[in-house]
């Protein structure tokens, strides 16, 4: 994923240097679009693999509802928090659990809990 991000950055910089309205700028736009698509596909692939691994190795899934919009205000962590896409990861793990439950008896008993934020559990 890091390589795809670097490639995107390089393509965007190249696009910004092209003359507006030129044919080379149009070509550079297509290259930037392809780089975005590769990066998006890499993120989705990672999330699918991670959710599958989480479902296979655990018997209970507990996802806390986080205020990610507030967390995105942190300038040093915002990019990484956005890349993590926790909401879609929880959705993918739920669908992986449901998809695999029919094939494997052990997975049919996985517990899925949603924990509220700022809840004390003792």
Secondary-structure blueprint:
Layout: H1 2-16, H2 23-57, E1 60-64, H3 68-71, H4 78-84, H5 86-101, E2 111-115
Parallel strand pairs: 1-2
Helix pairs in contact: 1-2, 2-5
Describe the structure.
The chain has 122 residues and is mainly alpha-helical. The protein is built from five helices and two strands; from the N terminus they run ααβαααβ. The protein has one domain. The chain has a two-stranded parallel sheet. α1 runs antiparallel to α2 and α2 packs across α5. The longest helix has 35 residues.
Strand content: 5-15%
Poorly predicted tracts of residues: none
Broad shape: elongated
Major sheet: 2 strands, parallel
Number of strands: 2
**Helix/strand order:** HHEHHHE
| Classification by helices and strands | mainly alpha
Domains, number: 1
- Oligomeric grouping of the chains: single chain
Task: Please give the order of strands in the largest beta sheet.
Answer: 1-2
List its salient traits.
single chain; 122 residues; mainly alpha; two-stranded parallel ribbon; 5 helices; 2 strands
């Amino acid at each position: 994923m890091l390589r795809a991000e670097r490639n995107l950055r390089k393509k965007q910089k190249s696009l910004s240097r092209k003359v507006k309205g030129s044919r080379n700028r149009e070509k550079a736009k297509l290259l930037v679009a392809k780089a975005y698509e590769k990066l998006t596909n890499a993120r989705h692939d990672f999330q699918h693999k991670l959710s599958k691994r989480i479902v296979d190795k655990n018997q209970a899934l507990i996802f806390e509802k986080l205020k990610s919009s507030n967390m995105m205000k942190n300038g040093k962590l915002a990019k990484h928090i956005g890349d993590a896409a926790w909401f879609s990861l929880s959705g993918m793990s739920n669908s992986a659990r449901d998809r695999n439950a029919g094939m494997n008896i052990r997975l049919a008993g996985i517990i899925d809990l949603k924990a509220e934020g700022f809840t004390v559990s003792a």
